[in-house]
Protein 1
Amino acid sequence: MEDLYIVEEDRNDLEQERYTLAIERIREIAKEAVCGARLQKYFNNMAAFVLFLDEAWNVVESGRLRQMTLEELQAFNGKLYEDILPAHYEVSYANPAYAVNCLGESIGRMLSFLYAELRSMIPAAFEQNRFAMVIRMELLLEVYQACLCAAQEEADTAAGEEAFPDPEELRQILYWYVSDYYEPESCEKIAQIVCPEKDFALRIVMDSDLTDLRYLYYYGEYVTENELRTAAHLCEMPEEKIALMADTYTEGYRIGFEMGNKDISIKKTVNVRYCLGFERMIRRAVENFDRIGLQSTIYRSGTNIFQGRSVNKNGYFGANPNKQFDYDHREDLALVLDKLLVERRLECMRGAFEQYKEQAKVHGGPAVLEIFGEKPFVPETKDAACRLSEKQQKLSVEYASRAGAMQNEYIPGEERSFTIIAFPVPDIGAQYEEIFDDIVRINTLDYKLYQGIQQKIIDVLDQGVTVVVKGCGANRTDLRIRLHELKDPDKETNFENCVADVNIPVGEVFTSPVLAGTDGILHVTRVFLNELEYKDIWLEFADGMIADYGCANFPSEEENRKYIKDNVLFHHDTLPLGEFAIGTNTTAYVTARRYGIEDKMPILIAEKTGPHFAVGDTCYSHAENVRVYNQDGKEIIAKDNEVSILRDTDISKAYFQCHTDITIPYDELGELSVQTKDGDKIPIIRDGRFVLEGCEELNRAFVL
């Protein structure tokens, strides 16, 4: 133990020395005028930003952060993020379009990426992660030195024009930065997922006075009125309502293990994900998890090249200062991605899992609190932003497949579970408090009532060979979904009777269709998927695989197809129809219509408001061999399709590491019926209303 302490002490001393040398050198940048005017302006800007983060480090380290008033914290927080706010983004080097305009195409893209990477030092300063600070400061200095050398060579030849370094030289600097530091960054990421002692956020949740809203600024995340009003609203709630919200969330997680026939007693940790402002509920949830033997791990949503940036946040997070910034930088890896780097990333990932394999084995999976109600985001596609080439897209798909398989080795899918719940934020509108109360009601509906009604639907579906789904009005959907054959209908079923467990709220029955014989067009006039809007999106299926697709977001067909391939197919050439489901939560549908918030509902709730179709992996991905039963004792046999079954022969072809739900709302639904082996057609929904006997209760919401 003493030797380990010495090693740790030496490492800290070395990091401190590297930090001191780097910050001293960065202070000198503004005093120099060696580079040409355009590059010097850029580096002066970067140096000023890093020096401000050094100041932030000292504010946190000294304890001054927690002595600030709310007004002082707000000003400090605003200064951290002001450069990428929409009001300033057009003239920010974080905007690749501006950087390219100022510095040229190749250099501009790389230096915009560099600034985006430097911005990930914000969480490092608040978490007091000196290593994360140092490696990015040294990267800045290495790039600056390359520019100095280019300027010196130009001065020696007296050419007279501003000198820029060789783009390949800069790319190599970025490449080796990414390659060299994947190992420690991978270890840090895995540790945050499975190790409770990585408790930076947990301590804020559990130790802060949550009635003092200053605590929201201790994370280093961007904070707006959304987070402040959410926290204030939860502070005003009676303890019983907080308990109801948290208990629904944690009990859903527990029931998920039970319904999935998985043993929760062998698990020791759960990964809690949430948005700032919900700490009062999260504290109660952490206490609930403790009582069932699970310690909570909490990690920050990705902010750098190693974790990946995305508009869709995954972890804990504050307000997004500018979703366009995340969208612009989501494929920055294109600057360096090649086959060797894929192998390097996988090697580092395995090393990290090996280091924490004991903790990984007892990790139970995520418990996710999502938010909705933010202003819809319609991205701008920029030529200046980095984009993966076709070859890199294939490498990205290969990496995702192999990384997913590797994670399943260490955190087996057949042993883990999850739960997801969603609540609105104040941006949803003037009736925020009423909407919030209605969502709490929807999230806690009587699952026994729905369980019984849904069983009647399943009993009819199990008589079928195919399900027919057709749109009405402007909706052009015309689909035939092939069902698995039940060999013993008295003991087997195709559909899971889903109540409030892993996907809260209640309200769906779902299956994994047979791909062969599943054909037709899925069309929705408007939908939001992973926070991105799609207008008139359509997917054509042939034998269950996407054969063609399009939307009406952009003027050209090429742009529309690229938008879908990047953000729905995730660079795959095609995807299977992994899930077909019928949403039964008419209460959620009517509530959304009453408040006019249909476009803001999260997919978690939206998928319960009509039939929905998921492209990608099945709902049973990596857990197909676990035997699962409905409440009536029948075993669910439709867990595989012709693609997922390939896991037995070539696992690289079995999974896609994505699952995107697309819902047809009731008012766009003309028909949903079952065709039996004898050729009979049994209607379940007609013109947006349930017509199957025993489902009358579901239509009450439409007339209340």
Protein 2
Amino acid sequence: MLIRIQCCGLAVMLVLMYFYKSQKKLKLGTGRAYWQMFCTTFVSIALDIVSCMAIINMSVLPKIVVAIVCKTYLVSLMTMAVFMLSYVCSELYPVKAEFIRVMKLYFIAGTVCYALIYAAPISFFYDAEKQQLYTYGPSVLTTYAFAFMAIVLTVWKLATSWKKMSKSRRDAVLIGILIIFAAVVVQFINNSILLVGFASSISMVVSFIKLENPGYNIDTRTGLFNQNAFNLYATQLYENKNDFAIIDIVYDLSVSTNIKVDETLIEVMNYLSTLPNVLAFKSIGSEVFILTEDSASSELLLEKMRRRFAEGWGRDYDVVVKPYWIYVPDPHIAKNTFELVNLLRYVRQNSTELSETHLAVVDEALAAKLGEEKEISELIISALNDDRVEVYYQPIYSTKERIFTAAEALVRIRGEDGNIIPPGRFVKIAESNGLILKLGETVFRKVCEFICDNDLRSIGLRYIEVNLSVIQCGCENLADDYIRIMEQYNISSDMINFEITESASLDTKSVMLHNMQKLLDFGVNFSLDDFGTGQSNLNYIIDMPVEIVKFDREMTNAYFENSKAKYIMDAAMDMIHGMDLDIVSEGVETKEQLQIIEQLNISYVQGFYFSKPLPAREFLSFISERNLQ
């Protein structure tokens, strides 16, 4: 059985073909390259068998026929090597036009090789008794030479583009090359051992197992394509600048009515998977991405799906599922797939339209906002890493003692260009992405260092106010961490006054009270910041162990501009004074405002009338000049 090894290789290829073709697949460039390589390998193994049969029967066949058959097999080997190179290039050159341009050069070189193979002489050997047969001569040597060059070129491509390729593809190609190269070496040394065809089939199995199994892109529960498949396909569309549209369906079956979750999930997913000209991808959690390359009719598709969901599900259409819909008619408002997914996540978390109408249309303005937030986030991270976070101090004036007795610490970031970036640009973004924890700790360390390095009491200052954000208030380790920092700098705890916001005390009340009690026991004090904004309620003052209430700048201004606000603020001041708490009025900007504030028996004043926030050295000079006159 001279062809038994080739027949085994062909059988392996047929089994592999069944598994590959029986699963649904995306039209990915790498997948097309794999299938081309697969088909070439299959044909090559089949031609190997045919050429062996031709040599066995060369006594009855014209010599020219045997030669053509054998040379065609050699050409298929060369083609297989070229398509292996094409498989590597499919990831290195994801843009289709660029890939075609590069591969044209390789196929031109391959065509030259084909001409030389067909032109060069070829000889045959067959020994029926020893069951040996092989070909030799210039045509065979030409094939070996060009195939070796193609393999070397493939390895060179891998080596020079190592970081551009995924690890799985690198491993698959390298293992495949080693298997085929070992078989070529063995067959070159001993022509009668025909291993190349079988080795090629094993190489295809390796690529299938490592990378090209379509099942890797399928969500097993829903049968839809998975998130990885979406990333691959959307990236391909971006790189080739193809038009497409995205509809993000965010559902929660657990809150739907009359529902059997598994049955409804299957029914909904079956509907989505059968939509014409549409690809459905199951994302993480309760979310499905609908992708259509027919962007012109994507809005009609959205309306069609919304009507279908409104009809209900189940046998009697009594199962109600009300998903949120995020529609992106032009995903190119994002630069790539990563930005697109982040944009969708941002809309899910922040869009008021989505919460009110269950539908949000994502436009360029929203994408620009996300881009700005990303830029600011990177700025915060670089500022933290490069020690460009600074603390400015705004003096707080005592109306009774007529000196400055405290200051509020305010965070600033210095850009790489040396300019100061105000907190209005970055604080909310830092809160939304969690960077506020590191930022807040950095500010507190700098404040403690400032207190440690300067004798503030000698110039009349009794404490520094430090803001605690909503996110910090919800951190269970806040008190322990901040106590540790104060102990590290060996500062007196009564030199610190933490400002908490009303929203913080509402959203994270139990954790906040736990942290507050620990810090109070350590000796720090608290102020209620921004009273008069958000969810104002005197119960906050009753519930929170604070000693100072700070009137927000808007509330202070309203007192001078709105008669109704004046009555409200008068009543609030009476109750706060009745609880024996001090008041700080922020936003005082004129001498007239200061005089009225003093008549209202407000203890402390803060605002531009006295000073804007100052860097540490300027602040110390300012306080020394005014308090020590």
Protein 3
Amino acid sequence: MKFKLLHIIITTILIIINTSIFAQNYYRDSILALIESPSIDSSTKAIIYNSIMHEETNPDSVKKYSELAIQYCGNNMVIKATATSNLAYVAFTEGKWEKALQLYQHSLSMARTTKDSLLLGTIILNTGNTLEALNEIPEAMEYIKQSIGIFRAIGNIAWEIWAYRQLCHICTQAKMFIIAEKYCADILRISRTSADPVDKLTGFIAYAQMSTFKAESQHADSLLRLLDRALVACDSIDEVIRVNKCTSFDCMTALNESYLERCKAHILYALHDDRYYKSNTDSAQKYLDLADEWYNSTGDSVQLAEVNLCRAWLTFAKKDYKKALKYATNYQETNYTSKYLKEHLYNLLSHSHYQLGHYKEAYQWQITLNKFLDITTEETKLAQVTERLLSNLLDEFDSAEQILNRKNAELSASVSDKQNKLLFAIVALGLSIFAIIVVCISVIRKRRILKLLKLKNQILMQKQEEIFQQQGIITKQKEKVELYNSTILQSIHYAQHIQRMALPDFDDVKALFPDSFLSYMPKDIVSGDFYYATRCGDFRILVIADCTGHGVPGGFLSMFGISAIKEILSRQPDDVLPGVVLDNMRDFIKDAFSGDSEIDEFGNEVYSTADGMDMSVCAINLETREVRYAGAYHSAYVWSNGTITRLKGDRMPIGRHIKETGNFSTIKQTLCSGDMLYMMTDGIQGQMGGLSGTKFMTKRLLQFFAENALEPVEKQKETFETIMRDWMYNTIQVDDITLAGIRIL
């Protein structure tokens, strides 16, 4: 009776203090001391250890209490599956992904015997995350999608959002940005139905990570625009934490993930353009130190690995190439190098050696990077299976050789023994009989082999006939595909003809700006860049624009843009202001795509896609030499008496933007006779090429202006196009290129 009463009292105490007692070391130690009481049975101990385990963040403590919970849980499959899953998590944070996968699969088999759907869904999700770390991408996505179905069925929004975030992360690393943006839109949509601020943080983190990943790709439409989107998402995380006064572990983890994304964005800013070097390297260092301090305190080795690689890239951005090479070499031997991190590591090693003049080592690391990107998971598995089969065959061959040698030695000893002649005769007779049997078996086998060969020849003849038939089918299909391709190519060439008709003729531009040149170099047959020239009163107008994408999609958007700018400029007064033109253009584009926007909890518009364009508008009065300029993610440059001045545009696009800062501004400036004004799209600076395979960058473009501004405009055009062709030698053109130069008379 006393035992039952004591058990009821202890159980009641545990229920009352379960939400607060484990947050304080004093109470936790008290409960642990209470466990030592002989009146506490094993099941109660397992419950206590399971509760303590959930409150711990240190991996060693989680491992300790998980093992104790398994020791005392008996047949309680919920506790056993939970504890085993936590042991798998510890192995995952230590980079032991194979071990983590085994533990997760073991806990999954136990969880399926329970009725705890939430436990089952979380283990399936974590199994998918581990498969993703092992580069088993299709299997990982199947597991995560299965967990989403479970979370949706039980109405658990928080875990459903988290699973969607993992899908977004996988698609982002695989550079499937369209699918990743779709998952981001799903996360933002679902998070609006939840009152928990952590759910909103998860959505913003996924948006920030997707933006920085996309910016890292050399084929990104606009690197700076994507980095702005990432930083705005990080600002939203700070706002949610400040408004809701979040101090929980999940909120702090989200905040430090945003610090890491801020760090990456500022590093990319610094690498992209020297103008952003000082401020962005300082910001990157600050956020990297904050994230490093947090992940060191939590013991998250996987995140620390990414922090250390960011530190190496930051040192590279600061142009301390020796130190960057040292950090990268030290990091090379760690166990936490995923496929994504390896790609960045090999890239950093190649660039660091190149900057230090170690061209041979840089070339070798570049080859290593190319080979690494070419190897598929299936090829790796096939190599491993082949290696195991060969190893087994060699082991069997060695064993057989050892047995044969031993038998030969025994036979030689028996032959040399003159006292065992009779035994030798018997053995010889036995060997003869054995030889006869072997010969008979060999004859039978040969007959069987001949029959099998005959049958295989018949099968091969049938296969050959089928192959001939399939070749005929393939040839017909090839002819159809070639016909379709020819038809499509004709349509695209006709689209080019229509686009050329919509654009002003070069002679018309010359008529408005007598001493000028225009270099127009589409990436594909049709272009996402367009230009337009007209007159408003005493001002002559030149417009240069870069639409989202290139090729056919960019061409469609450019036709839309040409039509819009013609209509807008036709309604402008004689005293035209380029900033007002850009405002009107932005309103026109937003109205046209108004069906693709939503309002978030802060009253801001959020878009699932980012269709629009970057644009610059310049109005010149050739009589007074007054220049009026406005730019949307575009800047112009003025060369005057050996000095180059930047006319800086606004950091907003024409179209949908995650955060707008107001109207576009108009820059007014009076130039002198002989000055050169240059307008361009960002396809020039972003073009890959040269010996090192780097971007052309603004620095080389400014050098071209400085060296050629005094040359005749036609000579400038010829020189520029020659430079670009030489730069792109053995490299594809990655974007449309447009450059206009106007000399002030």
Protein 4
Amino acid sequence: MTNSIEEVKDAACILAIGTNTTAAHPVIAYSMKQASRNGAKLIVANPKVIGLVRSADIFLQNQPGSDVALLMGMARVIVELGLHDETFIEEQCENFEAFQASLEAFNPEFVAEVTGIQWETIAEAAQVYATNKPASIFYAMGITQHTHGTDNVMAVSNLALLTGSVGKPSTGVNPLRGQNNVQGACDLGALPNVYTGYQQVTDPKVQAKFEEAWGVKLSGENGLTHVEIIDAIDEGQIKVLYIVGENPILSEANANHVDKAFRKLDFMVVQDIFMSGTAEYADVVLPAASFAEKDGTFTNTERRVQRVRKAIAPVGDSRPDWWIVNEIGKRVAEKGFDFDGPKEIMEEIAALTPIYGGITYERLEDVAGLQWPCPNKDHPGTPYLHKGKFSRGKGKLIPLVYKPSDEMPDEEYPLLLTTDRSLYHYHTVITRMAEGLDELEKEELLRINPVDAEGLGLEGGDMVKVRSRRGEVEVRADVTDVVPPGVVSMSFHFHESPTNVLTNAALDPVAKIPETKVCAVRVEEFQKRAQ
């Protein structure tokens, strides 16, 4: 997030797009609703009628995969009505003329057809966003998990830049991360193209710095993303896999392809806190400790580094992740794994990572975390980014074109499936271990509009087969108007109905993220409900 959670309540306008915030980030959703009660205008854009819609001033129920058309349509309205911030654009942005020219393609008829929303409603949303400041945008996987996910993010950025809604309190472009320490994992190098603090692998100076610190020769080439790793296994290029805290057999797009790849491996290690479906494939399972059994830090979605303190000793043979990796490191490397605890690891992080340079255990003892960038020990942390100046110098407005999703409905597969979150379940295995949560939502549901259900002869509670070009699952039908005609929705938490057997692993060419949010399916009756 460019800004902080605490700032949400003071926004005058909030645009929440591609995020089921009430289910996936309920604390932030509460702040949004608090802002709404304080008079903020709330705009929700989502293919589904999510909980946040009840508090919304404007609901934009756009077709899955149409976000670029929607956002660029809004931008066109803002420019045509002269509601853009000319001073901000002139002083802090570049490429406005080219961007303005690109808006010609997003005429009212085209945008309305692609999004499924009346142009008048889109125009109203654009005016509300542009005229109520400070304005903040929030998005999640509904924006990123597309073959044009990078374009979606650029469209979000364009809207914020166009209105000068960056670099100020209660504004910004705020991606909501999917798990509690996704931000921290990315910050500390769990990406294929960067070392810690987003220092590029391909930068020779960065490479030399880490080679000197670690005493080893490092590659100057980017690694593979998770989807590319699965493909490389299938093609025989990777023989050994080590998975930490991930369950791709249930969470990865085109999960049948993952199953096929895992069976080709020579050796597989899984390190996790539960015996997941993925762990069933492993030659060795290393039991990891949960958050309550270890010391360390988590970095949350607002870039806040927070101390985690051990409440109980690790149960059974489980051990903290750092300890497991450290012990393996001692056995395979001559140096670099002589840490006695997470505090020493944090000291190395600070020494090699400029944005974490001033973050120490001592400083974190008596505060509720520090937000990076925090370059030195006298720095208070950064509540919001880009104050006065962008890190790249000037913000760049990006011309975009609309690109349809990789897989659209046709006669054989006439419905669009989009994946969603649940308030009661957290990804693929953790919450299924809690009897109370499993009782609240014990099985997967296919949410289908009454119009589509009637055409198929379905009733709520019927068991159905959902088929895509990649596989099929059996699931219970929930007939509801939370999804529009032509669209069906499932979450991905239940191994009994593994939704990602259906989804499409086609990649965004830049970010290499799979198009989990859109694929074509058909629905067939499997078994009528008991009367």
